[in-house]
Amino acid sequence: MVSLESDYNNGVHPKVLEHLGVTNSQRTASYGDDHFSQHARQLIREACQAPEAEIYFLAGGTQTNATIIDCLLQPYEGVICCDTAHINVHEAGAVEFTGHKVLALPGHDGRLVADDVAAYLDAYYADETAEHMVRPGMVYITFPTELGTLYSLQELQDLSHLCEHYGLPLYVDGARLAYGLAASPDVDLPTLAHLASVFYIGGTKCGALCGEAVVFPAGHAPAHMLSRIKQHGALLAKSRVVGAQFEALFSDPSPLYLQLGREAVELAMRLRHLFTHRLHYRPFIDSPTNQQFFIVPNADLPFLRRHIGFETWCPVDAGHTACRFVTSWATTPAELQTLEELFR
Amino acid sequence: MVSLESDYNNGVHPKVLEHLGVTNSQRTASYGDDHFSQHARQLIREACQAPEAEIYFLAGGTQTNATIIDCLLQPYEGVICCDTAHINVHEAGAVEFTGHKVLALPGHDGRLVADDVAAYLDAYYADETAEHMVRPGMVYITFPTELGTLYSLQELQDLSHLCEHYGLPLYVDGARLAYGLAASPDVDLPTLAHLASVFYIGGTKCGALCGEAVVFPAGHAPAHMLSRIKQHGALLAKSRVVGAQFEALFSDPSPLYLQLGREAVELAMRLRHLFTHRLHYRPFIDSPTNQQFFIVPNADLPFLRRHIGFETWCPVDAGHTACRFVTSWATTPAELQTLEELFR
Amino acid sequence: MVSLESDYNNGVHPKVLEHLGVTNSQRTASYGDDHFSQHARQLIREACQAPEAEIYFLAGGTQTNATIIDCLLQPYEGVICCDTAHINVHEAGAVEFTGHKVLALPGHDGRLVADDVAAYLDAYYADETAEHMVRPGMVYITFPTELGTLYSLQELQDLSHLCEHYGLPLYVDGARLAYGLAASPDVDLPTLAHLASVFYIGGTKCGALCGEAVVFPAGHAPAHMLSRIKQHGALLAKSRVVGAQFEALFSDPSPLYLQLGREAVELAMRLRHLFTHRLHYRPFIDSPTNQQFFIVPNADLPFLRRHIGFETWCPVDAGHTACRFVTSWATTPAELQTLEELFR
Amino acid sequence: MVSLESDYNNGVHPKVLEHLGVTNSQRTASYGDDHFSQHARQLIREACQAPEAEIYFLAGGTQTNATIIDCLLQPYEGVICCDTAHINVHEAGAVEFTGHKVLALPGHDGRLVADDVAAYLDAYYADETAEHMVRPGMVYITFPTELGTLYSLQELQDLSHLCEHYGLPLYVDGARLAYGLAASPDVDLPTLAHLASVFYIGGTKCGALCGEAVVFPAGHAPAHMLSRIKQHGALLAKSRVVGAQFEALFSDPSPLYLQLGREAVELAMRLRHLFTHRLHYRPFIDSPTNQQFFIVPNADLPFLRRHIGFETWCPVDAGHTACRFVTSWATTPAELQTLEELFR
């Protein structure tokens, strides 16, 4: 049984676990002041070529989104995103729970397009009743998106310039950032750090047990972030648990984090080749990252289910279903080989 | 240098770490459905002699308090606690952040006393303007308290009966539960499970990397808890990280969790004996648990600081300072021996 | 200058003002217990043929919506409405401010359609990840809608049955209810009271200085409503100010409230006839109520502006603009006559 | 029966009602832009000798407190007040509902004392764990207090200087401001405007049907106040209802508002003389304003109740009860004469 259900159904990368073991007997400070977190911050600053970056470690993705969005927004502001955004659909209303409206615009294969945002903002500012509406306070995107797609460098630059023009921060949710960076031809960590006001490097889905690293590349994080993170219930007393993991993920000159992304995407491409060329499935969405979506004939489903763990996404027509197959750092070449032999 | 600053300046108990390693390659379900969490729940039910218990795993203490209190209260209700309670002082207003007032009553060495609660409730219900006031919706205590003290069985029963009488849930914050149970002559896990409506078994300070186990001993957790935990940003995608740790902490017939508490309290008693009999320090608070508070002559502080890590608590008089010395599962007999030799 | 900008640019109906004067020297209870409010409740129960109705008086529309929606929803639930709904667009995020997501579905000329709601709910309940999404907790509509349109009796019944089927309350925002009831061929107050779980009778736009009457036709208002209304800052100490106005609006066997609606709609129809038959403007939306929307040639705008106060709604094409003309209880037949003579 | 239960059991001062009548047929702008509100703002600026003042009209006291406090605080800040403060006891948790902790210090006959605040702030800033606590963000007092007492000019100056020193706004709740100013030997409107960062002039209890005027004497109100007021459900569409009332209350060179306060306090002093000299009751609190508190022999209660409407405040001892007797602008000299004759 090859497990392609998700990228969080696994444990922790062995090198990260090993690092937890090696450092386990050390006593440290807490609440983010531990030396593991300090060092991990320095490593991430270097990987981002962002020496002024302020970095906070949180435990999970929804928590990170809700906390960072609430801290970036004024209480009367909302966050612009596309309709399929995780914060709009799959976070149980965590953003609204902190009092903010999610201002959802139509997405394009999971992407938010700069022109749509510009049109929305222009209409808002031109509206005589704007003070009766929710003020747009920031822009949220994911890289890669919920649908596995990527923003090109040009698209990111367009959004970044637009945000700068309107004075809005651009926040990039990087829950699967390793896989996005691995698949992108023109966006790397320093580029992202240059274009985003704040982003997070997702650990949970990319090699860690838990943990996300929030990066304010140019510094200037909101005041009293520690207090606000605690107010959101997101401050870990034993902060080393995340700090040490990111230390392991970023300690090599060629960071393990990026390496894990590359390996998973390579396997995703083998999977894609197998499904399109051997099984002749059409992609449901054209994703270059670790999430692959195919249109599967319903007749094939029982056989697939016997050999692969995966999620059905949505029905396509009477005879076909869109299905999602996800590789991760934990997927092995041997697993792909098993599938290749199975479908020979 | 003997480290007695806190019980969260350490890593994870080696047996727990070993279990994370042994189970690391397994693929699991997520969001609490993983088999580690399932098994850990069963083990905890058995340790609590509470076969109907519903159990949720969260990442940290403030998060757990804010989430559980918000879920137990109606939106117009507040939580009764004593003035030194963690939720009233040291959680950055996380409870108020979810819209609820903390109704603080005077504490007695960190304890909330049933008679005070009864007087408060009677006054509230007798007040003709009660509908203009915040309705008391639950009672919060900690075991052990912020000051290391304990509730006797009788005191717990009094609070439990009072709560039952008024129809209010009794919630017990067990951030340091292992140490409290180890020190108590008459309260054990089944007793606590019998008297509390809900409580949590603290992992972060008692052997785990992170994680708290929330126990509703009789079941009847609020509806849609998973959704509400997520709304609070407290739902871990890779829930195994906490589940597997509690599996390790509770897998033995004599659970490691309780054993760790006993060892730390034993060392705390050796420390207490050393300080009171050898150094002739008076206790600042009479604590039977792993947090020890002594009145230290200021002249002794420099010497102590050279050999021990500890926190100053508050000034007592011109020549004395109250100091806190904390043992934990990570404190070793060798460390105590070092101190005993130092103060011979 | 004929003033057709809005239905809240006026004072209070003379008969209501007179009643405030006549009763002014009486001393009363407060916070809703005053005898004016008590009597007004009884009059409204009779007008609604809803003897069990529980009725609360609040000051304004956004306040009423935010308070009632928050009280009807569980903290983890959201409110379904159509995309043009006042709560979704023009309340500055007051619903989200209380923690709830607004779940907006596409509207049909301002109306929410039962089939759309059913499809949304079916998809939600069928979704395996539903616990990660915002749970739909109620349905919100306006009568008449933001665009002046009405629900037919059949449409209301469909929504009501749908809500009953799914166990969701149906809430009807009646900010302009007088005008809607006056224009409807088949919906009257008792019918509305029969089909809605809760609705409000708008006073501010329909003859009062301020005030809205929230009606729970079958009783069963949420617990501790007084306390919750106060928690929202919406409890008037001197509740008589709204109570006495509604007493005046509903004291006649043929209530003044309904009479005011009929007169305003009659004038709106004269306006409509004038614009469509004399000026040959096409309606922008086919509204039977006091808000009339016409497609005006831009060349006509300067002349219109010299003689009429009105709002431009949105551009239609290069040469035309949609404009809104609103009659109210304060609009006089003489004003209509002025316009008729002007455009002869 | 002489009615001394409260200062909000009455209607509206006849001159204010007359003004509502005279202006009723005028059409106006809305949402605070109406010419009544504009003019009232100008009159209040003059009465306060604060030409830069920004002024907002809201409907009621709890609403005003919750809205202004939320707008002045950062989301992670709390409000300092004394334990008997209205926001701490009698607003159903409206401040906490917006996410902020109420930081209550012991009161002195209802007053907050500058030294207590300084001690609290010094302790907070010296605390190494301050980031884990709620940050004090403003100071709230009432003038007069809940117990009818007043701050002297010196006490107000002390608080004002303290707030300036710590960079905290000082907010004065003036629900009964007219009565406080009438009774104070050294505090008038310009003085208050000079010492407070923001205060409100209470209308509901001092001659109006409803309405409070929030004054930022030096301008610099928080950004987007209109939007935030709406977000709190506190923006009146037909803002003239409050604007016109304050126009009437402040249109005379010697404002009616202040005159009403003087008359009520004069009657309160007659009442006080009657109770202390004729009935030999001792004051429960020494109040110079319109709220008078006396220690009444329980044997007298039935007789008093036959002739006077009043509230029992609290038991004093087995034979005595503290009772509150409140005069207002609506109390008449004839009513006092009735009492004087009754107790001759």
Task: Give a written overview of the molecule.
The structure is a homotetramer of 344-residue chains. The first copy, chain A, is built from 14 helices and 13 strands. In chain A, helix 2 packs parallel to helix 11 and helix 6 runs parallel beside helix 7. In chain A, 41% of the residues lie in helices and 19% in strands. The longest helix of chain A is centred in the C-terminal third of the chain and has 23 residues. With 344 residues, chain A is an alpha/beta fold. Chain A has two domains: 91 residues, Aspartate Aminotransferase, domain 1; 242 residues, 3-Layer(aba) Sandwich (Aspartate Aminotransferase, domain 2), CATH 3.40.640.
CATH topology grouping of the largest domain in chain A: Aspartate Aminotransferase, domain 2
Please work out how many helical segments of chain A DSSP would assign. 14
Average pLDDT reading of chain A: 97
Question: Which CATH class of the largest domain in chain A?
Answer: Alpha Beta
From the helix content, strand content and strand pairing of chain A, which structural class follows? Answer: alpha/beta
Largest interface, C-beta closer than 8 angstroms, per-chain residues = A-B, 53 and 53 residues
Relevant CATH superfamily of the largest domain in chain A: Type I PLP-dependent aspartate aminotransferase-like (Major domain)
Q: Which strand order spans the largest sheet of chain A, edge to edge or round the barrel?
A: 2-8-7-6-5-3-4
Based on CA atoms alone, the radius of gyration of chain A comes out at 20 Å
Q: Compute the number of strand runs of chain A.
A: 13
Coarse morphology of chain A: globular
Taken as a percent bin, the fraction of beta residues of chain A is 15-25%
Oligomer: homotetramer
Q: Uncertain runs of chain A with pLDDT below 50, 5 residues or more?
A: none
CATH architecture of the largest domain in chain A: 3-Layer(aba) Sandwich
Can you give the helix content of chain A as a percent range? 40-55%
Distance between the termini of chain A: 17 Å
